[in-house]
Design brief:
alpha+beta; Phosphorylase Kinase, domain 1; five-stranded antiparallel β-sheet; 5 helices; 13% strand; Kinase-like_dom_sf; Aminoglycoside phosphotransferase domain-containing protein; AGP_Transferase
């Protein structure tokens, strides 16, 4: 049977990040991820990927439904490191060489948007790109822009990848037929 976390251990655990349901237990070696939006599949997927690839993932000690709360719990190894959103901060939004954004959302005139000095400037650039040549979708575009302006503010500018997709991630994965 895998590791079951007691109520007392959870009460003494430290919340690692607000709104995530991820807690570091008092032993400093064990993390528990639990909450209303945590699914059994998350922990089982981590176990599967760790078993069948060379991608470095924490060891998952157990995935179980907590009878007290009804929430799924993933109990795993704590791995120290720097999160990507804390690793490389920047003074502008654009390409690393200081040129304009090159992104699938800003494709009407490639290389004509940015770089942006603030998140607010970036939001306006997105709205401008979304609105270009879309008179037939004006109501949707206005709603989208209002949502962007309302929700996307106050964030740090950090290094990101504009085409983060499986085809751009190397892992040493074996072909499916070998599993």
């Amino acid at each position: 049977m895998g590791r079951i976390v007691t109520k007392e251990e959870m009460d003494e655990a430290v919340l690692m990040e607000p709104f995530t349901g991820v807690r570091l237990l008092k032993d400093g070696k064990t993390v528990v991820k639990t909450g209303a939006h945590i699914r059994e599949a998350q922990g089982n997927t981590m176990k599967f990927v760790r078993q069948h690839t060379s991608i470095p993932l924490p060891e998952v000690y157990n995935v179980y439904e907590d009878q007290r709360t009804g929430f799924w719990c993933t109990v795993m190894e704590y791995v120290a490191g720097t999160r990507l959103d804390h690793a490389i901060k920047g003074p502008f939004i654009g390409a690393a060489d200081g040129s304009a954004c090159d992104d699938q959302f800003i494709c009407a005139r490639p290389w004509s948007y940015g770089p942006y000095q603030t998140e607010e400037e970036f939001n306006e650039g997105l709205c401008q790109a979304w609105s270009k040549d879309r008179e037939d979708e004006e109501a949707f575009t206005l709603l989208l822009c209002q949502m962007q302006r309302t929700t996307m503010h106050g964030h740090d500018i950090v290094m990101t990848h504009n085409d983060f997709a499986p085809r751009n991630i190397l892992s040493g994965v074996q072909p499916w037929s070998q599993f």
